[in-house]
Give the backbone structure.
Amino acid sequence: MSNFIVINLCEYMDVKLLLNRKLVKELERAKKLRELFEENDNFKLVLPDFQRALEWKVEDQKKLLASILVSLPIGSLLILSGNKDAFAAKKLCYPTETVHPTEECLYLLDGQQRISSLKSIFSNFYIDKTQWKNHFDKIYSDLRYRWFVRVKPNNDEDDVFGWKNLHFLGLKTFEPTQIQSLIETKRIYKTKDQEWYNPGYSPVDQNNQILGESATRNHIAKLSAQEGLVPLYTVYSPGSLGALLHETVLIKIASSRVENLKDKIADGELNITDVLGFLESDVANIVDEDTLTELWSSLGAKWAQSVLSALNQVIEEEIPVIVLPSNEVNRAVSIFESINRGGTPLDTYDLIVARSARDGSLSGSLTDRIVQILESPIELQPALDLNVPASWNSNNFGTLQEHSITKVIKEQYLNLLSIFSYTDYGDIVNIKLDLIKRNKILDLTFNQINNNTAVTIQSLNRAFAFLQIRCGVLNIDLLPYKLMILPLAYCLRDDNIWNKTSNLNKLEYWYWTSLFGGAYRASQNNQCIEDIKELYAWLNSGVNQFAKIYNKILKDPGYSDLDTLLMNNESIPLAISRGILQYTLSRQPTDFIPNNLLQLKLVSWDIASNRTHVYKGEKVCIKLEDHHICPLGNYTKIDESSNALRKQKDHKLNSPLNRTYISHIANRLIRDKSPLNYLAYVETLGLYGHCIPTPFIQRYSLAPNETEAEFHIRILTERYNILLRDIILELDLLSV
């Protein structure tokens, strides 16, 4: 069978952990690198469209080439057999060139970096000189090089190619590091076609007439030989007739070196036996000129032929292979991850993107369509907040980074897409855990993917807006539990839920109750599926099932209870630390800036969208900073106190009970104050929304006969009680 997966023998035992021994033994095959190139040329071996861009730089490619030249393993290739309709395909070495593979084809799942590098090293992409600039524009930038091996060593280099006496014994005895310095590249530039290695180079004769093809090759070979450089880009030249460039160069180098050796022998610098002795042991006694001429000719020819054979043999090396049928793409993913622990794992999202491309009637890739939706503003309703802007853009939530979809968004898109694709909306009985597992997602058809993507992204967008506006989450990376997106997005698909304040209040009740009550501490996948069902049912005149964790809010042992928040345990969960900060921000608290300077409430969506405020006559964008409410008292400045606290990771004042968000402007105003003056300064502010005990100076000053340790526990406990009180009061209002 021709369908196969290439696997590295060095990691053979790793694969046996995944596949049973009998199966592996039955499926072992071998392929030559040349065959892989040929199958790629014939569009039998193709790159699935989900593959990422080429990332290897020249140094990476050079290390690869050095390894393969000395016959060392070069890593694993993973190939999945299939048919032309399984995935959209693109051309190896070209980032945007699509191809139409043969009816039965092979998809290169892992190995793009290596095969692309080797194909560009050993191939000539610019055979048609009239079109070379067109190919130049389309090919990856890091492949725009000509590759050579320099056979003449420098003084500090090993004589790998036996150039000194034209005695070449092969490359397999050398280490990659010994040959790496002899590998040279020359960058191709569109505007420098006067360089002899440039694809557009067109030398002229004495009459200023452009040389013909053969004369040009001979001219280039002469210039290449003068530098001692043997070109590699003609090693793989299918269908070529006559001597290839690298062969011609080797002959010229050999001829030149023979003449040089003759001169050295004549000058007494070398002994003729050391040079020709391996051809004729009695050469020192030969006086017949014809015999000597024949020996010199044989020396040059043998050397050139030996080096030529070694270079040509590189693409004839056999690579062990294993066949994997097209219906085992999930197994291919697992094998990939097993044999490439240090590499980039296969991405389920990329597989889905490739599958969606089977529908040729849609313009642009699935990713392009998703990005377009994410970059488009959505309309906001007063139901979210009376002061919200008319529209909101999820870019402000960190869904895209330089127009690329972030990993979190891809994952939750796939989960929600699967749920929407396999169930009718509202049919919560059939929403099962397996719908968000990889195997089920990979079974999606291209019609399911394309038909449900728009509504999936719209639902996610609404969830993101809700999280930022109602829950104080500035961006997706700060969300305590990423799977909490799914219940929100599922419910917010419904316009009646999205546009109704009472429904949004219930969603917020669910969010804070689940977060502070520890619902997502464990079994998050199961929890989010159950929450989708129970939350949707509650919003549609059902029972509030979340009241059962109401009594665990800020009381879950080891997670959110007072003992944990007082840092009596090993650590405070990051979800709670973030949750407390975000809860206070959701209350739109007043900033620590006197009213006569800037009347400012900290509003999450304003901060995320970089809205400007006028401060001292200048427009500024507010940035939030995590502030310690109570400073260490034994420092002269607040900034010194804060720096000291951050260094003492286990100090109780690093608890989230002692932290709140303030603006960077307020932080600058506070920075140089002494702890005592800081207390007086903050006392003059409203402190609204921060859940800070008041009166501030009284509560945050050391009481008579109170130790510092007792003081720290007291102020943290007081803030805990206020937080708990305010959260409970708010939840009671939200659940009505």
Remarks:
- Residues 1-26, 339-343 have pLDDT under 50 and may be disordered.
- The chain is about 45% helix and 10% strand.
